[in-house]
Protein: DUF3299 domain-containing protein
Amino acid sequence: MRKIYFLVFLLTGLLVLENGFSSKGNDIQVSSKTANLETASFFPTNFGTDVIAAPTAIDTLNWKLLGMIKFVKKPDKEYGEVMYPVISPLLKQKNKKRIAMTGFIVPIDNVSFALSKNVFASCFFCGAAGPETIMGIKFRGATPKLKTDQYVTLEGNFRINENDVEDWIYHIEDAVIVKGK
Structure:
């Protein structure tokens, strides 16, 4: 079974490379001592308007930074003792700010999707990854047509969750696909 997962992962990686979707330029370089954020500028798309918007500085996050998380056991009224996330101060500074994030589209149900560090076959609820390797997505306007394991870069508002055990730890809201359509 592991050989099949490895083969699926390998083939997906080759497809991603073949299609030219690479997140190397958008990743944050994280050292063992400090985390340095790179800033990327994107020009907002003007949908038929005559107004030209100025470039907006957007923080580009990566999965390594989102993985810098700890968990602490706390009592929960409904579930007993639960592991709650303790999010790094660096990520807390990015809460409710515009960010760009790259990953794989994972369907949650018929209408909901998440952005994952891993392909569907290796996502956190199918494999050994943790809940910090996935982000809930709320798209701006209608949900675009998406395919499982589609590799995309999303731009949206970053939101963290440290208290609701029935919700994702990370979210990207008011999201638009800026690469990988």
Observations:
- The CA atoms of residues 29 and 36 lie 6 Å apart.
- The chain has one domain: 23-29+37-43+56-179.
- The chain is about 15% helix and 40% strand.
- Residues 23-29+37-43+56-179 form a domain with the OB fold (Dihydrolipoamide Acetyltransferase, E2P) fold (CATH 2.40.50).
